[in-house]
């Protein structure tokens, strides 16, 4: 699987709520991703992480030019609107309450584009396979209200991955889950990534989550955001508790926290899970 995503000199300004002028949220952000991998994106609240993720997915807010300047290139071509290379997973799993687990996962294939692209027999097989991979084969005919938060997030993950996206954009997907379920979901994500490698960009406020999952950790500064730090982690996954307490990991943790604290002294939503 080959993939290249380049974010070049992105500036994003949004109109101020009182209508007087604009707020610059992102200031000349440049990032390049040229291989499958799990890329963690951290930064103080409001620095524009979701904005960047949406831009990569070609999702545009109504009435605001996005980006204000700069470009996002996918395989060298400008991404200036919705495209079918990326799938998104959000903190709120946004499953349709009136559809069963299987129908929710099948939902993308109802869209004309995917109906045309993937023959019915193939889409049915993919749905069955991904439901098994996320551990929901026996729950396929339940409704979202009959599932736990973790199970609902499994449905959302399955719905994103059933399309076999080259880019998976994840916006704090596990932050509403309790610690144990979150760890299970992290392990599941790694398993799914190994089965089907793609370019994952994963927004989190949790430094431990970044060090547990990331091949690469990118930290943004406060608004207007710039890339403050960008490093790789070569330790193979799954990463042990011994590694998490190693000098290498502790230094990485301090490196991230120093930037976040400098950006946001005394407040923010930082978490370190022990
Ligand atoms: N469509 C919009 N119109 C106006 N302002 C917006 C719009 N979208 C985002 N913003 C503002 O831009 C800033 C960055 O928002 P964004 O959600 O990208 O940040 P974030 O880093 O993901 O935040 P958090 O960590 O709190 O989720 C915020 O101040 C937000 O209010």
TrEMBL record:
Coiled coil spans: none
Gene Ontology molecular-function annotations: ATP binding; ATP hydrolysis activity
Alphabetic keyword roster: ATP-binding, Nucleotide-binding, Transport
PROSITE patterns listed in its UniProt record: ABC_TRANSPORTER_2
Short name of any one Pfam family annotated for the protein: ABC_tran
Domain ABC transporter as annotated: residue spans: 5-247
Similarity-based family: Belongs to the ABC transporter superfamily.
PANTHER family: ALIPHATIC SULFONATES IMPORT ATP-BINDING PROTEIN SSUB, TAURINE IMPORT ATP-BINDING PROTEIN-RELATED
Identification of the protein by name: NitT/TauT family transport system ATP-binding protein
Organism: Panacagrimonas perspica
Lineage: Bacteria, Pseudomonadati, Pseudomonadota, Gammaproteobacteria, Nevskiales
